[in-house]
Amino acid sequence: MEMSTIGLPPRRERAAAGAAARQHMPRAHHADWVPPADRRNPVDILVAQGRTRIQELLPTRYERMRASAFAFMRGSAAVMAADLAGQPRSGLDVQLCGDAHLANFGSYALPGGPRLFDVTDFDETLPGPFEWDVKRLAASFAVRGGEAGLDKAARRALAARSVRNYRKHMARLAKLSPSDVWDSRIDLADAIDAVDDRAIRHAIKKHLRAAGRAHGGQHGLVEQKGDGPRIRDHGSTEHIDRLRSTSETAFEAYRLAAPAHLAALLRRYRLADTAFKVVGVGSVGTFCALGLFVSGDGEILLLQAKEAQASVLEVGLPAWGFAHQGERVVAGQRLLEAAPDVFLGCPPAQVDGRWFYIRRLKDSRLVGVAELMEAEALDFSAALCGRTLARAHARGGDAVVLAGYMGQGEGFDGAVADFAMAYAEQTVRDWQDFCAALESGRLGIT
Fold first, then answer.
1. Could you tell me if residue 354 is left (phi over 0), alpha (psi between -120 and 50 degrees) or otherwise beta?
2. How do residues 45-54 score in pLDDT, each as one tens digit?
3. pTM of the entire predicted model
4. How far apart are CA 282 and CA 394, in angstroms?
5. How far apart (Å, rounded) are the C-alpha atoms in residues 78 and 314?
6. Rg, C-alpha atoms of the chain
7. Angle CA(151)–CA(79)–CA(389) in degrees, nearest 5?
8. Helices 411-440 and 58-66: crossing angle, nearest 10°?
9. What SS3 string covers 199-243?
10. What is the pLDDT of residues 118-147, one digit of tens each?
11. Which of 220, 284, 308, 351 could anchor a disulfide with 326, C-beta 3.0 to 4.6 Å?
12. How far apart are CA 50 and CA 356, in angstroms?
């Protein structure tokens, strides 16, 4: 029998290929950001994106984006995607998160296992140039640092720290076997224990303990009624009768399409309730439902059905042959996420004109370490998010090639930090223009 020829060349050849890619795209060129004369107006991009959203939720979306430049950045991934699409590219592709700002990293607990730190949002995921995620992450720290009152030098250092830790962790991963790279995880407890500052370490642990007490296994979302458990109407979670049928149909279509091993598990639960949930900033206006599943003995399982729209990255990247948008998100999450979600899947067809994917609602998710900690913890967050992004990219890309391209010096770090500072200023200007457009009624909201 003829042996398979599938596989990778030796490390030295791949590292050399990464270094050779500098001839095509020198690392110093990543510093460049000058808005082109024909740059599309960000408000126009948001208006066009809003046409695909649930219209009555647009005021909520825009109000959340108005809160700050960072909040605007969270809701305007489509704007940065359009800007990055016009930039020179390294040619080194990975599975992109697609919206790798610092608030899309967080922690979750494995069932019966440790708490991990990981990427937590995959709605925009698509294969593309690795630097797009790195630049968005660095720019988000430059913006957030400004809101924390840091001066220009400190904000640039913060952005550079996220890139430096990305580069260094990628170099460590490049020395591992493919299977060890695939199995690598970032244990949050170990990461926190490595923080030198005792006060910051104590503050983070205190916050995590408080989050665990507040949420527990049901996230504070379930209450007991006379006829059994129900999802609570609270904050951003609400029962909306006209959306119930779509939610129930999406969960049922997902159940019917589940592979045999998952179908065997799902048969042990019944769908007892659904509710609509307004999530995040960038996702506001897309359809998101919670499903409360209950076993015969009253045990609870919470699943989330999220609408999968076209990725904002498609403005600059080719189609990759996914059957539909739900499949795109599921495939990307499986590549990027360190711990597999056994419930991750999608209905095979549209439900009421929408594509969906289903996943388990993660336990005690820490949404944005940098936003929840005091300003002194931003350094910790930058380092941790940089490491985490490298781990994710190494699964859907080649750590050896990427490490070869970035090298051992700090040239790549500095270049991306310069970009981050320039793009942070651009983000503030865009936010100000957005607020003015909102006030003038240009967005159709007064």
1. beta
2. 999 999 999 8
3. 0.94
4. 26
5. 10
6. 22
7. 65
8. 120
9. HHHHHHHHHHHHHHHHHHHHCCCEEEECCEEEECCECCEECCHHH
10. 999 999 999 999 999 999 999 999 999 999
11. 308
12. 18
